[in-house]
Structures are given as C-alpha cells and as structure tokens.
Design a protein that fits this description.
Helix content of chain A: 10-25%
Number of helices of chain A: 8
Number of domains of chain B: 1
Helix content of chain B: over 70%
Largest sheet of chain B: none
Number of strands of chain A: 21
Radius of gyration of chain A: 24 Å
Oligomer: heterodimer
CATH class of the largest domain in chain A: Alpha Beta
Shape of chain B: globular
Structural class of chain A: alpha+beta
CATH topology of chain B: MetI-like fold
Distance between the termini of chain A: 43 Å
CATH architecture of the largest domain in chain A: 3-Layer(aba) Sandwich
Number of helices of chain B: 12
Strand content of chain A: 25-35%
CATH class of chain B: Mainly Alpha
Strand content of chain B: under 5%
Strand order of the largest sheet of chain A: 6-7-8-3-9-10
Structural class of chain B: mainly alpha
Number of strands of chain B: 0
CATH superfamily of the largest domain in chain A: P-loop containing nucleotide triphosphate hydrolases
Number of domains of chain A: 2
Shape of chain A: elongated
C-alpha cells in the first residue's frame, strides 16, 4: 500500500469571533508520519476533524492527493481513523468491528474474513475475534481500533489522542507498535497529541500548534535543538530562558557576561537546554565556548541524571542536567561553580 | 462512634419503614385475595374461594372489548411515543446548547402540567374537530404522555454512549442514515425496549383522558371506574389482579433492561 499526500491549504475555522484554526497550511508527504502537537484549544483536533470530514472549514481547502475534500462527506474520503475513546461499536464482536469498513465497501465475505484476520494478527489479537469490546482491556480495545482503521488499506490514517486514555507503560508499548505498523503499511499518518514525548518518539515531523496556528514544523531533533519560537522552546522539553539584549551581530547576555552571535535583530531571550551546560573543562575545546560562574542552590536526583539548580549573579535561575557516570564529585550546595556551554547551543529567540 | 443498632432511633426507623411498605402494598394485598372469592360481593377476607370472577371477566364481551381496546391503544401509543421520544432524545443531543433547555422543557411538559388541565384542552379540541370517541386521538394523547419518560430513558442511555460512534461509522464508509441505524441505534436497544414497556403501561392504565374523550368507547380503566360507580362486583378484583401481575412482570423487565443499558458502556 502507498500513502497519499495530504495538504491543508490556508484552512481557517471560526467559531463566532474566535479562530480555532487560522490560515493553517501543512503538506504531509506520502507515507509520512506527522504529529500535530499542542495543548487543548490549540486547534489540533479541529484540523483533524476537518480532515476527517466531521467539521467544515470556514475557508481554505484540504486535499488528499490532488482531490479537494470540500463538499466530500466522511464516508467518501477513504481515510482510516483511530478515535480518542476508541469508538468501538459496543454491540458488535471484535470481528464485526474490524470488518465494518469492509462491509461498507461491499468486500466479498471470504476476502473480508482474510483481511480481518490479517489485521487482528497484526495487532496480536487473532484469538479475540468473537469477543465483545466490553470484554477487552483498554490496550486491547486500542489494538482493535487500530486494526479496524487499517483493515481496508486506507492511504491516509488519522489518530486522535488515541493513546491518552492508557497508562504510561501500555502507552509506550503501543507507541512502538504503531510505529511498526506505520512502517509496514506505509499510510500517510496524521497523529494528534498533547504529549510532547509521544510526538518526539513517534513522528517524522511534528507541527507544534498554538492558538490555531503552527508555531514550527520540523523533525523532532530540529524541533528540540533549534526551536523557532519561545513557545516551542518552552513547550518541547525543558529549557533555560535567559533574557538578552540585541547588539550588533548578535545578543548580549548580561547575566552571564557573554556575547552570542546571531542574525536575529529582535533577539530577546536565549534558550539553553539543561544538558547542554556542563561544569567548566568538560566540553572538548575546538568550538566557541563561554564560561561563567553560578551559585549552586539545590541538586535533585533523577535516576540516570542529576539536576542542579543554580542562581546567576543577576538572580536568574539556571538548571543544569548532567549524567551520573563521571559526576561522583558533586559540588556542595552554596558553592560557586564554574560552568560552560558552546555558544552554538544557545538559541536566540524573539520575545513572542 | 456509637452503634446505631438497637437504639430507640433505629427501632423507630424500622417501624416507619414497615408502615410505609404496608401502606404502599395494602391495596394490592386487599385486592388479591378478594379476586379469588366465590361470593356475590367484594369481601375481605373472602368467605369462600374460587375462580368464578375470572371466568366472569373472560366470558363477558364488554370486558373483553374494553381490554382489547386498551391493549390496542397502548400498543400503538407506546410505539408512537418511543419512536418520537427516541428521535427527540437524539435531536436534543445535537441541538445548539442554548436551545436544549427550551426543548427539554417542552418535551417534559406533559409529565409536569396536571393531566386534568391537558385533558380539558384535549376535550375542547376533540369537540371542535369532531374527534370525540376516536381511538387515534387517544393514541396520540397517550403517546404524548409517554414521551417525557422515553426522552429521559433514551436520553440517559445516549449520554452514556461514546459520541464518536456515529462519526466512526461515517469515516469507515456509512452514509448518514446507515451510520445512525448501524452505530447509534443498536447500543440504545435496551433503553428503547424499556421505554416501550413504560410507555405501554402509561397508556394502558390511563383513566382521565379516556374518560374525557372516549365517550361510548370505554377502555379498561374506564370500565373499571364506571363499574365501581354502579355496583361493587368482584370482577374488578380479578381484572385488577391480572393487571397487577402483568404490570409487575413488564416493569421489572423494563427496569432490568434499563440498568443493563446503563451499565453497558460504563
């Protein structure tokens, strides 16, 4: 099976005077796994509902392949979908649930049987065909929902917060499984979640949404290492945001006493990941390194890493994370510690 | 904490409970034995026993006619009421939030406004339109009386249901009507059957409207009522006993179905 391009072309959705989605444009390549990530109210579900045909865009167009979906009802869009609460039909057996899309497509009975059993095999539920959904665990229901969504080989697969109802361990297990299935079937996948960890683990690209707009769309690494906006830097992972002042050719970091080169003329903060800061002398020379002193206020044990909370000389807080392998000589609380980071790891951002 | 068992309060509570139950069941406890009397008049307790008055009931053409009339009306009214009430519940589920209280109030009105007042209105309407002694009119009136109950029972089941079921059916290829019939409706079946039974009995034992508009075509409750006016005859007791047993069985079934539908999606 081959996925198809999905394209949002300047889509807006207004509810009265508020925009749930504003000039939303996004192209998902065939077979790509793209996640719409955002808090509730960010417009991610609105975008998915418009793509599924449950809701109409106020303006703009959505296309699957070259076909505009404007005026096309859900049932004619040929997309598979996994719903937030699974939406399994409670009166039907697992088999009938998975067979439903095939029945609607008038697939012959013997082929239906084969496809349903293949699908159930894929989600490791072949022995559960005759059960009712009520007799399954949450994780099993999720797998049935997944089998139903892909049984008819749709070129496009939609997933709406479909892991958020499960507990952490199950969620991680299913994340791996969904990735494997995605690779197998190659459907273009649009995944919606509010969980940034989930988005980073599963996706080829992540679109970070805020207030109905896309803040940044990039692969997980770029999103984490080079956030484009202050919102993204704060939303994805943990970071230190330090106030700066724009100067010629970069920004002046008063709290640390250094200059970071940048093309940005409206730089207001720098984002510095806690694991990118080290105790002085630990980063190999060769790159442009800046050193400074800070007072240690607290150290928190996190298992594989420890987190140090420092105070800079102007009173700003700074978090540093280090692996525990070489860190047997933990500095004392209250001590002045020399720290360093590569200038290229500091991301200069505007204040919006 | 002080134990409540055997305290004067708990003794009073138990006594109160027993009295309440006695009060509620007293009419039934009196009627049942009286129906098995072999005597000429209603006696409690009966001096001699027999099935005489049951034979009387089954052999009397007028009793039979009014029973069948009531059954017919109740059957049609409950179907009409359940169909309309189910659609109303589904419609209400999809109505703009600001309009929901308005329509809910409208649909529940028949259960709140005193029946005598509605009956008077219906009577005047029946006279104007010449629909007195009309079974279809009584069917519609009874359907209206059942509507609030159907709306409450089916509405409760609908609120328990995953709202994306119908969307799921749509996205997997079902048209709007097909999605409603295959995805939304079937999980509501227990609630719908339970509504049918409730609506049936609301019609079957309804007296006031039947008295106002049915004229010569008496229903079973009207027949019981008018018999009591003229002479006290143990046939009433036997009819009532059959009535009680049928109602108990059906209402129990309805309640079991209602609970099953409430638990299903939990």
């Amino acid at each position: 099976m081959q996925g198809t391009t999905v394209r949002f072309d300047n889509v807006s959705k207004w509810f009265g005077n508020t925009a749930a989605l504003e000039n939303f444009s996004l192209t998902v390549a065939p077979g790509e796994f793209v996640t719409l990530l955002g808090a509730s109210g960010s417009g991610k579900s609105t975008a998915l509902n418009i793509l599924a045909g449950f809701s109409d865009a106020t303006s703009g167009d959505v296309l699957i392949g070259d076909r505009s979906l404007t005026g096309v009802p859900s049932e004619d869009r040929n997309v598979g979908m996994v719903f937030q609460n699974f939406a399994l039909f409670p009166h039907m057996s697992v088999f009938d649930n998975v067979a439903f899309p095939l029945k609607m497509r008038k697939t012959p009975a013997d082929e239906t049987r084969r496809l349903v059993m293949d699908s159930l095999e894929m989600v490791k539920l072949a022995g559960f065909a005759n059960r009712k959904p009520a007799a399954l665990s949450g994780g099993q229901r999720q797998r049935v929902a997944l089998a139903r969504a892909v049984v008819f080989s749709p070129p496009v697969l939609l997933m709406d917060e479909c892991l958020s109802a499960l507990d952490l361990k199950l969620r991680e297990e299913l994340q791996g499984e969904i990735r494997r299935i995605h690779k197998d079937i190659g459907a273009t996948t649009v995944f919606v979640t509010h969980d940034q960890g989930e988005a980073l683990t599963m996706s080829d690209r992540v679109a970070v949404q805020n207030d109905g707009k896309i803040e940044q769309i990039d692969n997980p690494e770029t999103l984490y290492d080079r956030p484009a906006t202050r919102f993204v830097a704060e939303f994805i992972g943990q970071t230190n945001l330090i106030d700066v002042r724009p100067t010629k050719g970069g920004v002046e970091v008063a709290a640390i006493g250094t200059h970071i080169p940048s093309d940005k003329t409206d730089g207001a903060v720098i984002s510095l990941r806690p694991e990118r800061i080290a105790r002085a002398g630990q980063i190999s020379a060769g790159s442009d390194i800046t050193q400074f002193n800070a007072r240690l206020e607290d150290t928190v044990f996190l298992g594989a890493t420890v987190e140090h909370h420092f105070r800079l000389k102007d009173g700003e807080a700074l978090t540093v994370r280090e692996g525990r392998s070489g860190a047997s000589d933990l500095p004392e609380i209250g001590a002045e510690v020399a720290l360093e980071f590569r200038k290229e790891d500091a991301v200069v951002l505007a204040d919006h | 904490m002080k134990s409540l068992r055997n305290s004067p309060g708990s003794v009073l509570m138990t006594l109160f409970f027993i009295l309440t139950i006695l009060f509620l069941f007293f009419p039934i406890m009196v009627i049942l034995p009286m129906s098995f009397s072999a005597g000429e008049t209603l006696q409690f307790p009966p001096k001699s026993w027999g099935l005489r008055w049951y034979r009387e009931y089954f052999n009397d053409d007028l009793w039979r006619a009014s029973t069948f009339r009531s059954l017919r009306i109740a059957l049609m009214a409950s179907i009409l009421s359940t169909a309309a009430g189910t659609l109303a519940a589904v419609g209400l589920d999809r109505t703009r939030k600001s309009l929901v209280p308005v329509f809910t109030g409208l649909f529940l009105a028949p259960a709140i406004i005193p029946n005598v007042i509605i009956a008077l209105g219906v009577f005047i309407m029946a006279v104007w339109t010449g629909l007195t002694s009309s079974e279809p009119l009584l069917v519609m009136v009874h359907a209206m009386l059942g509507l609030p109950f159907v709306l409450l029972i089916v509405g409760a089941a609908l609120r328990q249901q995953d709202p994306s079921l119908e969307n799921a059916a749509r996205v997997f290829g079902a048209g709007p009507v097909q999605a409603f019939v295959t995805a939304t409706l079937p999980p509501l079946t227990p609630a719908i059957i339970s509504s049918l039974i409730f609506a049936f009995f609301i019609s079957f034992d309804e007296l006031i409207f039947a008295l106002f508009v049915m004229g010569g075509k008496v229903t079973l409750p009207v027949r019981i009522w008018s018999d009591l006016q003229h002479f006290i005859n143990p046939t009433i007791a036997s009819v009532s006993t059959i009535f009680i047993i049928a109602t108990t069985l059906a209402m129990t079934t309805a309640e079991i179905l209602r609970r099953r539908s409430a638990n299903r999606n939990a």
